[in-house]
Amino acid sequence: MTSQLFSHDVQHTLDIAGIFVFALSGGLLAVRKNLDIFGIAMLAEATGLGGGVLRDLIIGAVPPAAFTDIGYFITPLAAAVVVFFLHPEVERINWTVQSLDALGLGLFAVTGTAKAHDYGLGAVASVALGVATAVGGGVIRDVLANEVPSLLRWDREIYAVPALAAAILVAVLIAAHALGPVTGTGAALVAFALRMLALRYGWR
Amino acid sequence: MTSQLFSHDVQHTLDIAGIFVFALSGGLLAVRKNLDIFGIAMLAEATGLGGGVLRDLIIGAVPPAAFTDIGYFITPLAAAVVVFFLHPEVERINWTVQSLDALGLGLFAVTGTAKAHDYGLGAVASVALGVATAVGGGVIRDVLANEVPSLLRWDREIYAVPALAAAILVAVLIAAHALGPVTGTGAALVAFALRMLALRYGWR
Amino acid sequence: MTSQLFSHDVQHTLDIAGIFVFALSGGLLAVRKNLDIFGIAMLAEATGLGGGVLRDLIIGAVPPAAFTDIGYFITPLAAAVVVFFLHPEVERINWTVQSLDALGLGLFAVTGTAKAHDYGLGAVASVALGVATAVGGGVIRDVLANEVPSLLRWDREIYAVPALAAAILVAVLIAAHALGPVTGTGAALVAFALRMLALRYGWR
Questions:
Q1: Number of domains in chain C
Q2: Is the complex ipTM more than 0.90?
Q3: DSSP characters over B11-66
């Protein structure tokens, strides 16, 4: 069972952390688009939970985890409150947010790929779904805000490639029966490091 | 069984009424965007049925009711024909459309929350899904028309809050084993009244 | 079993061909929007596979075929490479692309309607799903590229009507127990011919 990749408690904590930072990015975009607190909350929910809901619909894990665990639902609301009261400060710590977002990207790529495998998908499909989980929330965020998804744009640093690297690593680890807490975390850190290097050196 | 909230015939009639008024709003936006009769019909379908299809996908009720009941499919087409031939008149009776839309909002919030509960979702998840059912069609309408969803915008009267109020009321009624035709209709009317007051007094 | 409409090998080949030409149209739009190779690949994937994934989610065929057959996943990538290296040439052979797209439209309308029927949907629902399969990828393409779907616009030649004609024909053939490889291909060719005539004579 690759679902044993992380203990349930560890995985849940990592999931919540990833949802929180993605929701922050949704809330900040809502502020830039002059949306009010409600718009901030809705965009935070859609960004934080979108990728996971998409993944669960595709693998047939309904109702999605986002709807059966109250923590998943409340986390983006907490992020929205943070953005609403602290958004000048949050923007100032942009580097922190970018770092957390990079970590969330890696974690979602790893857990998305592993969950897809658990549901019987093949290696390539699991990788595709891992990437979709990691980047899906951001695409939904940009579509709702009426912007071309930054994922697609050439003038933004690479975003999906780090997720793809982590997802492929996980698929290889599964095939080698070597996926565990340490190697899984390692794969997430590879994505994290690639993304941070891309931001630092402007890889596009 | 909360699905017995309304008798099947009553619920079906209310559903069709809600779909019809939401489809009118989709058709009218299509007219404003200079779309032709076909574009009007497509946007009416997407707006009228979008929220319910989203709800059914998430709770795993596939194929969605919109695809198994021919009345659901034909209703938006009827709304599209009405818009096509009568849109100056329909715009003039804007107040009527707004009222019907507010009624649809309340009804969808109530039936969406109850259906989610029937499929085993918890209280918070049922409320979230009730709101998603009520506002989902409008979000899909605005995304397809390439506009920022009015749901998210600060310069529009509150829309999701009335739906949220009705959905929470339904969850409380379910917990108290007090959900029935009268109390359910009451919850829908609360949403209706809140929305009408918001429009009247410009609550934003 | 209408799934025997075409032998598995024939249907698979036709599916891949349809995905390829739809993916080409996604890739070309990405070029026009100044997206890079990664954006081209993502938009090609979304356009080529979007209609079929939507259909499979709605009928409950999860995980969707696009995620269980590696050929489905790789085909849009091949189209993206073609667009990236050859896009001036591909644009020049616009007529060829339009023809292939028209063929894909017909094939997807036919196979989408037949698959929906296999999953127990009624005639009208099957027709609706056939049309959604045929046009869904293009709508997703345009939404991601931040444009009003050309499907909805009055200033484009008719697109959904040919798909609708083919889907209705398939539903009639199913009802008459007359759906087979020859009649099914005939229905696809009807859509193809209608679309080509619309382009030739500017039907809108």
A1: 1
A2: no
A3: HHHHHHHHHHHHHHHHHHHHHHTT--HHHHHHHHHHHHHHHHHHHHHHHT--S-HH
Chains that touch B (3 or more CB pairs under 8 A): A, C
B9 touches chain C (CB under 8 A): no
Integer-rounded Cα Rg, in Å, for chain A is 16
CA-based nearest residue to A61, from A53, A72, A70: A53
Residue C65 contacts residue C49 (beta carbons within 8 Å): no
B10, B65, B66, B73, B108 from B21: Cα distances, Å: 17, 18, 16, 14, 12
Q: How big is chain C by its Cα radius of gyration, in Å?
A: 16
Q: At C64, give phi and psi (nearest 5°).
A: -55, 150
Binned at pLDDT 50, 70 and 90, residue B101 comes out as: confident
Residues C189-199 have pLDDT tens digits of 999 999 999 88
Task: Specify the 3-state DSSP secondary structure of B7.
Answer: coil
Cα C204 to Cα A18, B92, C196: the distances in Å are: 47, 29, 12
CB contact under 8 A, A152 and C53: no
Structure token digits, residue B45? 């379908």
Q: How far is A49 from chain B (nearest CA, A)?
A: 12
What is the rounded distance in angstroms from the CA atom of residue B86 to the CA atom of residue B96? 14
Question: Is the Cβ of C67 closer than 8 Å to some Cβ of chain A?
Answer: yes
Range of the domain at A97: 2-201
Percent of chain B with pLDDT over 90: 25
- CA of B35, closest CA in chain C: separation in Å? 5
Selection from C22, C57, C59 nearest residue C43 by Cα: C22
Q: How confident is the model over B93-102, as a mean pLDDT?
A: 72
CA of B20: how far to CAs of B15, B41, B76, in Å? 9, 12, 6
pLDDT digits (tens, 9 = 90+) for A175-195: 999 888 889 889 999 999 999
> Distance between CA atoms of A189 and A201, rounded to whole angstroms?
18
For chain B, what's the residue count?
204
* Closest to A28 (Cα-Cα) out of A74, A75, A94: A94
Tell me if chain C has a CB within 8 Å of the CB of A84: no
Q: Residue B127: helix, strand or coil by DSSP? A: helix
C-alpha span between C172 and A87 (Å, rounded): 59
User: Can you say whether residue C188 is alpha, beta or left, with left for phi > 0 and alpha for psi between -120 and 50 degrees?
Assistant: alpha
Q: Note whether C54 contacts B: Cβ–Cβ < 8 A.
A: no
What residue in C sits closest to B64 (Cα-Cα)? Answer: C58
Rounded CA-CA distance C85/C37 in Å is 10
Q: How far is CA A195 from CA A51, A111, A159, A166, C84, in A?
A: 18, 18, 7, 11, 24
**Average pLDDT of the residues of chain C:** 84
Q: Which residue of A has its CA nearest to C63?
A: A59
How many angstroms separate the Cα of C53 from the Cα of each of C56, C57, C61, C62? 5, 6, 9, 9
